């Protein structure tokens, strides 16, 4: 059997596992189980649930939002592992001289973010904590290459930046952090698989998790080389990538009740604000959740 691993640039652990194929980390873990490995690169992590359901990939990873929207869309997924929290991975930025001092001041404002990614979780929860609605009280617009310039010129009120972009924006100056990601959400990388693989071949999932940790160990030990790989492939400077990568925990953890509760809170906020159109029971996306759990999307009432 061949295990297909989905990979995109927004998930650091999978990204470096893919770029370290010359070290054979995934194959080395899976070969004793009689399995081979191929990678399926794609650009939009939001599609991960769909690709799993269609059988294009067997295993993938994203931030916190895509697995919730995947369940809401009826895709049958199983959580397999998570990263440690990433409190410095991103931030909601405003101009240094902006009158926006608190999240409540964003009412009626335009915010640029990667819609459908963990950034939606960040903004939706921050607004919810402030008594505002993601759907009704702000205008969320998908980030573009011009988002930072639009923020600096005052055309938009706020922008969620992450990784090397965040490091570059802070290096340039003139912007202020309104929300530090870790003050609102844990912002974990999240890994999930097709239910049939997760439930019938748990040893394969365990091997993949070990391979991810080995890739993380390499990135933690070689931050400059990891930064050079990212800069050459994705753009930006190696210095900014190194700054960003050094903030990551590079640690894979099991799925816990606390994580499920975090995801359930996000799912409830998404449903309440209309980001997803039906409620989701996150616990249905666990191995052995029981026949009939299916996608974890409950009937709308």
TrEMBL record:
Tree of life domain: Bacteria
Pfam families in UniProt: NMT1
InterPro entries (UniProt xref): Solute-binding_3/MltF_N, SsuA/THI5
Every Solute-binding protein family 3/N-terminal domain range: 2-222
Family: Belongs to the bacterial solute-binding protein SsuA/TauA family.
Protein name (Swiss-Prot/TrEMBL): ABC transporter substrate-binding protein
């Amino acid at each position: 059997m061949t295990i297909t691993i989905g990979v995109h640039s927004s998930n650091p652990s999978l990204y470096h596992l893919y770029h370290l194929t010359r070290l054979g980390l995934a194959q080395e873990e899976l070969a004793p189980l009689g399995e081979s490995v191929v990678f399926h690169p794609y650009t939009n992590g939001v599609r991960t649930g769909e690709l799993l359901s269609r059988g294009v990939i067997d295993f993938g990873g994203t931030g916190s939002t895509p697995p919730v929207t995947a369940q809401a869309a009826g895709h049958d997924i199983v959580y397999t592992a998570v990263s440690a929290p990433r409190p410095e991975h991103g931030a909601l930025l405003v101009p240094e001289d902006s009158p926006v001092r608190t999240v409540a001041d964003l009412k009626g404002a335009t915010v640029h973010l990667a819609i459908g990614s963990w950034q939606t979780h960040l903004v939706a929860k921050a607004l919810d904590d402030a008594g505002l609605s993601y759907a009704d009280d702000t205008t969320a617009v998908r980030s573009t290459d011009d988002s930072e310039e639009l923020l600096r010129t005052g055309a938009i009120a706020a922008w969620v930046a992450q990784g090397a972009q965040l490091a570059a924006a802070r290096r340039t100056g003139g912007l202020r952090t309104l929300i530090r990601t870790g003050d609102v959400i844990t912002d974990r990388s999240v890994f999930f698989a097709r239910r049939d693989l997760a439930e019938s071949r748990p040893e394969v999932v365990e091997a993949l998790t070990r391979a991810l940790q080995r890739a993380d160990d390499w990135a933690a030990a070689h931050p400059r080389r990891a930064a050079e790989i990212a800069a050459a492939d994705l753009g930006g400077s190696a210095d900014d990538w190194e700054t960003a990568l050094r903030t990551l925990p590079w640690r894979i953890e099991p799925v816990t009740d606390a994580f499920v509760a975090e995801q359930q809170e996000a799912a409830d906020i998404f449903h309440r604000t209309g980001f997803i159109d039906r409620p989701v029971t996150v616990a249905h996306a666990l191995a052995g959740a029981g026949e009939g759990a299916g996608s974890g999307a409950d009937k709308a009432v």
